[in-house]
Every structure is written in structure tokens, then in C-alpha cells.
Specification:
Helix content is 33%, strand content 27%. The longest helix has 16 residues. The protein starts with 17 loop residues before the first strand and ends with a helix. The chain contains four helices and five strands. By secondary structure, the chain is of the alpha+beta class. Strand 1 and strand 2 form a beta hairpin. The chain has one domain. Strands 1, 2, 3, 4 and 5 form a five-stranded antiparallel β-sheet that branches. The chain is globular and about 45 Å long. Helix 1 crosses helix 2.
């Protein structure tokens, strides 16, 4: 498994392991009720120079999961989050910040419909694979 593994005290056995932080991106369709629907996962492995957001942007799937939300608008906002995470210059000034700052911007607490859950830690030999596994676990269910 790509995360939550046991790390040996012997350095030669830990070669290739990368520490990362991750958070689940979620949508609160009724913020006053506090119920959230997971729509993405962001993974940041600073030492590997890795920052990616796997996010659900299909408007039909968003509408199926959250019928009370404007799914086209939500998909647009989620694509903007992905562009910021990817460092796309067209996403605005925050997208030009270093990866660590973009991760902290994405995961910063906010009172909005799109929010991140708490930041967790993990270990993996491949952060991309860890992202796929986390997305499958938290978003695809």
C-alpha cells in the first residue's frame, strides 16, 4: 500500500520512500448542515517536488452526487482549483506561487462551499500512485 506503511530504522530499507501530505477536497452543498461530499484529493510531496490534485469535474457526475448544486458552476470552480494546483499561469497569481504555498492555499480553512478536510501524512515510493489510491478510496468510494 502506498501510504500509512511502517518505516524501518535502517536507512537502506527506507530508500525510495517519500513523505507526503494530503487532504480531501469536499463540497458542502448545504454549509449550515455540515454534510460534505468528497470530490477530490490533493497530494503534496515537498521533497519530490510533487503537487497534484485529482478532482471530479464531470458536471453530470457532480449533479448526480449533489442535485441541489449548480453542477456546471461547481465543475468550473473545481477545474480552477486543479489549474492553481498545477501552476497554470492562466489561473491567476496564486498559481505562480511555489508548490508548498499552493498546497497551503488549497488546504487553508475557509467558509465556502468548497473546503478541504484536515491535512494528513503518508509515505509512498510513488506519490502519483498514492494520489490514485487516495482518490479511489475517498472519492470513488
Amino acid at each position: 500500500m502506498g501510504y500509512g506503511g511502517i518505516v524501518s530504522a535502517r536507512p537502506d530499507e527506507n530508500a525510495g520512500w517519500v513523505a507526503y501530505d494530503f487532504a480531501v477536497l469536499r463540497v458542502l452543498q448545504h454549509p449550515h448542515l455540515g454534510s460534505a461530499v468528497p470530490v477530490g484529493v490533493v497530494v503534496h510531496a515537498r521533497t519530490a517536488g510533487f503537487l497534484r490534485l485529482a478532482v471530479l469535474t464531470d458536471a453530470d457526475e457532480l449533479a448526480r452526487r449533489m442535485p441541489d448544486v449548480d453542477s456546471l458552476l461547481l465543475a468550473r470552480y473545481l477545474r480552477a482549483c486543479a489549474a492553481i494546483c498545477a501552476g497554470d499561469a492562466e489561473a491567476g497569481p496564486v498559481a505562480m506561487a511555489p508548490p508548498s504555498e499552493r498546497f497551503h492555499w488549497i488546504t487553508a480553512p475557509r467558509s465556502d462551499v468548497i473546503q478541504c478536510g484536515p491535512v494528513h501524512e503518508g509515505l509512498s515510493e510513488d506519490p502519483e500512485r498514492a494520489l490514485d489510491e487516495l482518490y479511489a478510496q475517498y472519492v470513488r468510494g
